[in-house]
Amino acid sequence: MLILDILSIPLIDSATHGSADHYYAKKQVVMVAVSLVVLVLGLAIDHRDLVEMSPWLYGLNGGLLVLVLFAGRTVGGSTRWIPLGFFDLQPSETAKVVSILFCARLLSRWEEPPKGMVGLGAYYAWTAVPTGLIMLQPDLGTAMVLMALCTGSLYFGGTPGKRIFQLALAGVLAIALVLCLHFYAGMPLPLHDYQLKRLLTLFNPNADPLGTGYQVLQSKIAIGSGSLWGKGLGQGTQNRLDFIPEQHTDFIFSVVGEELGFVKGLGVLALYFVICYRCLIAAVTSTDRVGTLVAGGVLSMFVFQIMVNIGMTMGIMPVTGVPLPFLSHGGTALLTNSFAVGMVLNVGWRKHKILF
Amino acid sequence: MRREANITPETSDSLAPSLLKSRKEAVTIGLILIFLALATRMFYLQIIKGEVYSVMSHQNRTRITSIPAPRGDIFDRNGDALVTSRPSFSVYYWYTDQADAEKTLPHLATILGMSMDDIEKRLLQYRGRYFEPIPIAKDITPEQYTAIVEDAPLLRGVFIEPEPIRYYPGGTLMSPILGYVGEISERELAELKDQGYSIGDILGKQGLESYYEAVLRGVDGGYQVEVDYLMRPTGNKGPGIDPIPGNNIKLNIDLKLQQAAEAAVRVAMEKYPTAKGGAVVVLDVKTGGVLAIVSAPGFDPNKLVSGISQQELNAFLTSGQWRFSDLATTGLYPPGSTFKVVTAIAALAEGKTTPQEEIYDPGHHPNVPSLVCHRSWGHGSVNLAEAIRDSCNVYFYEMGRRLGMDTYAKYARELGLGAKTGIDLYGENYGTVPDSAWKAKAYSEGRVFEPEVLYSEHMMGAMGQVFHLDTPIQIASLTQAIANDGVRMKPFLVKEILSQDGEVVRSLDPEVAGVLDVEQWIFDEVKKGMAMVTGDPRGTAYWTFHDLPIKVAGKTGTAENPLGENHAWFVGFGPFDNPEIALAVVIDQGGSGSEVAAPVGRAIFDAYFEPRLNPPAEAGQ
Hints:
A: mainly alpha; three-stranded antiparallel β-sheet; B: alpha+beta; Penicillin-binding protein 2a (Domain 2); 2 domains; 21 strands
């Protein structure tokens, strides 16, 4: 699994190298190196200690999320980063790992997995705090990731699949209802106009023809034109001409598709699959509940992000600002994801120790 | 302890194996389905449709053009255009690649007479947005247009778009108040990105253009368009959005009156070359609507809109030909003798004098001989109305002594001085109404001036000197309040917001800004004095107004300016019996109020009364 993770790293490097300035590539190399250290760190600390500490982390991260709203750096209308000089910290990224740990703690403390309204209500109330703060930035994508991962944790915590399915269904229906009310009764939404337009682009490519609609069209052209073998690293014309905004962050997969082509693109998908599958194995073979929950949470986070991000670049998922783990440019995300992998490896290793 | 836990696993701590097994199966299936779906989509895009997309990417012919929303016009009260748009041609460039740009751009630069640096700077601004056309030049000449069309094969990616450009038919007329538009700066963009602005957008930069930006702007549209091999739009449009034009606004301004006021100020400034500028505000007495507002010399917004070099701009500014600031709402001047009407109201209202009481003016105040009257031999015995007529300093020194600075300052504030009038423009100044609290704070360290109000300052402050500073609009508003018997209306420029079709979207109603609650006879007495200024042969403005057939009232002021020539003031209202307009004129460093400013006031009254003095001949006669 460690090998697979390392294998994905040259991909990040080459992809960013092909898409953007050397500046980004160099920065990415440094971040990859640091992320390996962080991975080892995640590996070294007992995940149960981390889970024990999680209320403190939860508080600290919440504080950072409040701080970012007041002192954060604003790019493109949203305030997500706390400038630290050498590095811009993005607390919404760390919130993902912190939430995994915190949810694991909640679920492992309760005698029974939450099934009823009260239990589920209490559980979601805890996640609603960071989610709400992130929505204020605004960052719809990360907020959705948080909801997805805590729902995933719930599943690994023992709440019946049927109940989760009902929850998801209720969520979808609620969103549909709210959208209907918005369009037919003028109900105000807690979303910015552009966020709504992006979501609707999935159903109606003309909802935002000058922004997201164009972006998705160009992304599809990029991926499609990669054909079987791709145009080669740095050779993508779509990519080079800056047709796709955000191509080094959210739309990185369009570069993968265009420059690597179908065969190698499948390889990338396979790598993601293996990572996800290893998370699953770690989760179900862990001898302690906490381990199951941590690995399950990480799995949920990865699957959701991979599905939504890659799906969005190919026009089958709504456009939300969800980065692709390991490939998208973004320091905090890379460190967080590496740490998450470290934690999962830790879950796996503890198990082996016991077997000796 | 933790280690112990590891060595003896607590089986009860882990979930039931059967549950884990079911989770494993369900999630494995889920994972396979998700990845299969993604792989299928990739297969569809890259293998089945790969050919199609390859062609599309090879000659990527879909670009985005933006269609700026037509900006709303600004009309005067009769529908005459003060700000509008005229057709023009702009040059855009679609970046394809560096080799192409190196061939095309130097040639384009030659045609447009631009430096390559300027064009490259532009390109750099648009980095990362090359799917959008990059605006290179606005408002090109017909010769440039022809050259570009003729050389089209050499200018791949260059195309010309017809575009409305802001046009100010009056040139410098009302320019600091109307303002101007320009391309959004990087700093403004960072601030306004949330409101949907992007690089290259046009933004109101001053005056009404800035204050009513949200009303005038509209919503830009754009289309995905197909382009031919020379990167010119083929006319095939993809999905897009039509722009929503901005709304028009109709002002209370009367263009004829405005022109007369501008001309009168210009004449005064030419006649008295010490003058550095001038401001006029004419208000509707009943509503507070601004009928004319001048800030001279102003500037020519048309030059700014179609592009002006930094050197040219600097030349205009340093020579004093141009002045961006709006003197009418931001210029601060000591009010001088125009303030005497405030002191007169305060003295009557506080019972410190009666209309009949006569004060003897020997040419200086008996208590402080250095406080002299402007007529060295004095005005003799004068009552309140006569003191206003003669602008007798000694009378008002005495009233200042009796009232004290704090008392007449209170009346000044109730008449709107020392506060923004609330006119619909940004950056209005507050001015200063000095009193003991103000002076104690301003000069707490006793440097330059004593922190206490001196005996002589109580007296001099009563005639608008020492520390008093007001804007012309404040003084106009004060005059309006007196003409309206104490009811001060908020001055406002915009009367109506109109849709493009001319329907009224919003109508702005007059608002009362404040009421000075004193008895009616006090206003009558002060107005009587003001009528004598223009109507009595001894009045300070009599020779300017003696042949005006309609009775008006006024007050002159010559405000001492320690930094240069005196500022010339005139305030007035008319017709006397049922006032319709109130006005204030200041000629910055123009000299004497009765000599320089009063004729400007006269010209404005002439223009306003013109229709009733010389009624237009009936049709058919």
